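Subgroup meeting minutes
Present: P.N., E.W., G.H.
Scribe: E.W.

1. P.N. recapped why we're keeping a running log of single-chain structure predictions: easier to compare across weeks, and new members can see raw inputs and outputs side by side.
2. G.H. added today's entry (120 aa).
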Amino acid sequence: MVMKKFALVAASAMLVTTVAFAANARPAYAAATVDCDAVMSELNSGKHQKEVAADLNTTVYQVRKCKRRAAAAAKAATKSSIQAQTGKEPPMAPAMAAPSSAMGAPSPAMAAPAAAASPK
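Output recorded in log:
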């Protein structure tokens, strides 16, 4: 009988603890409502990321995300302005390797030196 009462008390305590922690959970904020321009103006005024997140009712992650996007946009703008000044295109990626079936046959450029070196 004592064991049943102990089990009931333990289960009740676990339930109360779970409900108490669930009630204290922080609300999630909608990511779609973050105004990155407002975030960047707050950051540029000298506020810390936590302060900006609290003021704009968003998360620190969203503040960092806006900061990262602004840095990427600034880098892209700098790259495009340099290209406009120099008139050069960015270097292209190297061409992909030929298919494996073509790799078995030697190229004509490589066949000519081999033919010249072979004794007749």
